[in-house]
Design goal:
Helix content: 55-70%
Number of helices: 5
Order of helices and strands: HHHHH
Largest sheet: none
Structural class: mainly alpha
Distance between the termini: 40 Å
Shape: elongated
Length: about 90
């Protein structure tokens, strides 16, 4: 299986997500150990998520979002698909 290589700009997005996860944890006064235990993941996996490493399972991300009460935020991804709507409207007008 071919491994995807992220462009630097996209890698930066994942790093930003990791930083936001870390800040959410710190705002709640939760240690890494507590967060990893509550999310049922290893401390190493949490550390990788917070560093923005791309090779962490989506399940782990959802587990971490859940302990911060942010699990519904994942539903916002792709919700406002402006380009997709414009392309669809163009087809409807034909």
């Amino acid at each position: 299986m071919k491994k995807a290589r992220l462009l630097p700009k996209r890698k930066k997005l994942i790093e930003y997500l990791g930083e936001n996860l870390r800040l959410a944890r710190l705002r709640r006064g939760i240690t890494m150990e507590m967060a990893a235990e509550r999310a049922n993941i290893s401390r190493t996996t949490l550390w990788k998520l917070e560093r923005g490493e791309a090779n962490v399972r989506l399940e782990s991300l959802v587990q971490v979002l859940s302990i911060y009460g942010l699990q519904e935020d994942i539903l916002l991804l792709g919700r406002d698909d402006e380009l997709g709507r414009k392309l669809q409207d163009i087809e409807l007008l034909k």
